[in-house]
Amino acid sequence: MYGKKACELVKELSSSEPGQLAAFNSNLFAQVIEECNFHFLQLQSLLSKVQGEGMENQTARNADHFGALIHHLSLVRDKRCLMAYVYNRAEVIRSFGWTIEPPLPEEIQEKLSSSEKEYSKNHSATIKSYRSEVDLDLAVDMVPPKDPYIKVRVLDDIGTVALSDQIANLARHAILFLRRTDAETYISQGLMEELTG
Amino acid sequence: MAQYYDIDDILAEDELVPAVFQEAANGVGLFDSSDDANKVEQGSKVELPFWLARELHLRQAAAINVPPCYNKKTRDEIEADAAHVDLRNRCPHFYELGHKIAPLVGDRTIGSFLLFAFQTRYKEVLIKAHTAAMAVAAKFLTLLTKEETKLYEAAQSSMAAFKKWRMGGPRFQKAAVLGRKRKPID
Fold first, then answer.
1. Does B39 sit within 8 Å of A2, measured CB to CB?
2. Is the N end or the C end of chain B the one with fewer CB atoms within 10 Å?
């Protein structure tokens, strides 16, 4: 049946977890494109046959006309499936650009096709340049913190540091209130831990 | 028209519907692989995917018949106990396909039938989503169409969010200044 393979491609998308990527199915993708070529050749031969029979037959709806129509519709359908496959994957890749820092981890990289890799690289570059243009870190948590200050314990001797609002002596095991923005960098480096409750 | 890239819309249009060719068509051989005439005769009955059947129907090249999942038997079952009819087995895109096919076949009862089926099943889906434990739900889930499964998941996640809101965490973040109690005056 026409359009079956293209539909399988789309089914693959719908069965995968939302926000996750499966490996790019280049094998099936190529098969669908091959099917498109087949439809196109058939369409061409039928159309030239219709034209060869003269103008009066062109308007009369003969069997060739409908054969050509079916091939045309199959082409359009295959195109839609292919486009949807690429488009929906691209959407996931775009969301990666916001959540994952630019060099994508290896296990994601190997699931992308070469053009998708290119796309993801360019997209994160665009985000980066936009970020520097508006001068804002757009990747931070969307949920606002409840308090600008958090309680932290210092895990290592850091010494006296000038923070944005105070000069603090960050000695080992000191427990202090710091601005969240100051503490975040230390926490991510493993020099502090947040105390909750 | 639904969104061009919508996956569910594409899959819904892939459902097979019975159709009869009103005209012959040359150069198409795949519908009936038994003969190699590479041609579809006038009057041949085939099962076409909906995307093809619709266009052929609009050009009067083929006539769509109502698919078996909207027949009398299913209707009787739905009327008897809508919530326990296995719609996924019959047609995973029951509502979407019905919605698309109703204006084409000119059957005015399909619309109200779909609405009735959806309303009664909707109630059941919500109740199950809010109360049933996962073990019980697994069996129930196999009866649902694609759209109902989405509804079910949405209902479950909203219920989980509601519980989280009610049990834990402050409901209302007061500004820290306002929360401070006045010191008793000695």
1. no
2. C
DSSP-based helix, strand, coil % in chain B, nearest 5: 55, 10, 35
Facing B25 at nearest CB: one of A63, A81, A87: A63
Strands A192-194 and A175-179: unpaired
Chain B interface includes A196 (CB < 8 A): no
Contact residues, chain B, for A16 at CB < 8 Å: none
Instruction: State yes or no: pLDDT of A60 exceeds 70.
Output: no
Phi (first) and psi of residue A154, to 5 degrees: -85, 135
Residue-wise pLDDT tens digits, B157-178: 888 888 877 776 554 444 444 4
Domain boundaries, chain A: 4-134, 149-194
Q: Rounded distance, CA A122 to CA A102, Å?
A: 10
Q: Which amino acid is at A119?
A: Y
| Topology (CATH) of A4-134 | Methane Monooxygenase Hydroxylase; Chain G, domain 1 (1.20.58)
By Cβ distance, the residue of B4, B23, B24 closest to A80 is: B4
Spell out which residues of chain B touch residue A1, defining contact as CB-CB under 8 Å.
Answer: 30-31, 49
Query: Regarding predicted confidence, which is higher, A3 or A39?
Result: A39
CATH code given to domain B1-65: 3.40.5.50
Q: What's the gap in Å between the CA of A51 and the closest CA on chain B?
A: 15
Model confidence band, residue A1 (pLDDT cutoffs 50, 70, 90): low
Selected residues 26-55 of chain A with any CB under 8 Å from a CB in chain B: 42, 45-46
Q: Distance between CA B92 and CA B14 in Å, rounded?
A: 11
Q: What are the start and end residues of each CATH 1.20.58.2050 domain in chain B?
A: 67-166
Token output for B112 = 């109200």
Q: What is the ipTM of this complex?
A: 0.75
Q: So what's the pLDDT on residue B31?
A: 55
* A71, A39 contact by CB (below 8 A): yes
CATH architecture of the domain with residue range B67-166: Up-down Bundle (1.20)
B57 vs A contacts (CB less than 8 Å) = none
CB contact under 8 A, A42 and B6: no
pTM over 0.95: no
